Amino acid sequence: MEQLNRDCFCIGVNPSALHGELESLLAAHGVPAALATSHPHLFSALPVYVARAHVERVDAVVAAVEQVVALPAYRSAALAWAPGIAGHDPGSPGGLLGFDFHLGPERPRLIEINTNPGGALLNVLLAQAQRICMPAITAPPTDPRAAEDAVLSSLLAEWEGQRGAAPLRFVAIVDEVPEQQYLYPEFVMYRALLRQHGLRAEICAPDELVPRDGRLWWRDEAVDLVYNRLTDFALQAPAHGVLREAYLAGQVALTPHPRAHALYADKRDLSLLGDGAFLAAAGADADAIATLAASVPRTRRVTPDHRDAMWAERRGLFFKPAAGFGSKASYRGDKLTRRVWDEIAQGEYVAQALVAPSERRLASGGGALKVDLRCYAYRGQALLYAARVYQGQTTNFRTPGGGFAPVLTHAMTADAPRS
To answer: Does residue 411 or residue 350 have the better pLDDT?
Structure first.
């Protein structure tokens, strides 16, 4: 598979056609857009090839994390550094997760977990539009035709977990100034998907939500479920106070919710998930311990007692804020200045052993871009794979030739060569 990433340049996706399909969808819902102009690097034209053994390892990591998160000792440790709102258990796991990996020659390494991973429906569209040049040898790791239903099912399962058999009627898709978010086209796709299945759904900002008569309202609609795309994971901002109070009072179902972020996506959790001794003491089984200890790069909290040692080791470390997202305020250690290092000391950071990403060449004799692998999962089950192709320190959508890319692996029925 590494050879294919170096030498295969068959066009797997036509980005212009995908942009056109998205623009048609937006226009059908009254949203003018020109994605080729506003989002020129949303999709990469080339697929990324991943060995079947790596896909199976990712599946095992996803299942192992789910097993560990269910352990009382793990929950106690993770909630000890979480904000108080994480102690509220609404009854559901917390929605779709995004597991992000760097691919090494031996195994994938889990870089982080996200609780509101963008791009799921966009990558469903991408997978469905993909043209496979070697169908006897390569195939998507999961069935893209089933992925859209799985994404919807995860939302419905969240509702059932929090409300049981009560009827779900209205879903609010909530983010700050949603029309200005880079992935706003996906919000429109979520709204369309929910409406196709007989639900009422709207996209709104948190300040459009109003408490009344023991419910949360958007205009004249009582909100049953909030699909939460906010990056204020603990709902601490004053602007999110109405949503926070309604959630705590059980007046609205919320996914993803603060407890899910605390248990899965706080970067400090990786210091537990990769610690074999802790996992053994917590009661994880031997397979989960072996899988996670081999797959999670060593991650430590940045604390005053080992601050000087970390500065000395910084060239082999990557520093991330505990509640960060989208690589914001994250730094490669070899790029750190003393000024930024002093700023890190004022916040809550982790230091993770640096794991180089794999690469995808764009053309024969041309340069290569970096690759992250994302697995969208729910309740320990991998649902969809996608890659993010980029240049620079962290993933972005500013690289010509980069963006979301379809993933292909060995076809299960093929006598495929080893990668």
So the answer is: 350
Asked whether residue 242 falls in the same domain as residue 306, the answer is no
Query: pTM of this prediction?
Result: 0.92
Range of the domain at 40: 2-296+355-410
Of 307, 335, 353, the residue that ends a domain is: 353
Do residues 10 and 156 share a domain?
A: yes
What contacts 24+ positions apart, CB below 8 Å, involve 123-126? Answer: 123/147, 123/376, 123/384, 123/386, 123/404, 123/406, 124/148, 124/151, 124/384, 125/18, 125/21, 125/22, 125/189, 126/13, 126/18, 126/43, 126/386, 126/404, 126/405, 126/406
Domain count, the chain: 2
What is the arithmetic mean of pLDDT over 309-320? Answer: 92
Residues 364 and 348 in one domain: no
- Are 260 and 93 spatial neighbours (Cβ–Cβ below 8 Å)? yes
Q: Comparing C-alpha atoms, which of 100, 111, 12 is closest to residue 406?
A: 12
Q: What long-range pairs does 165-168 form, CB within 8 A, spacing at least 24?
A: 166/224, 168/199, 168/224, 168/225
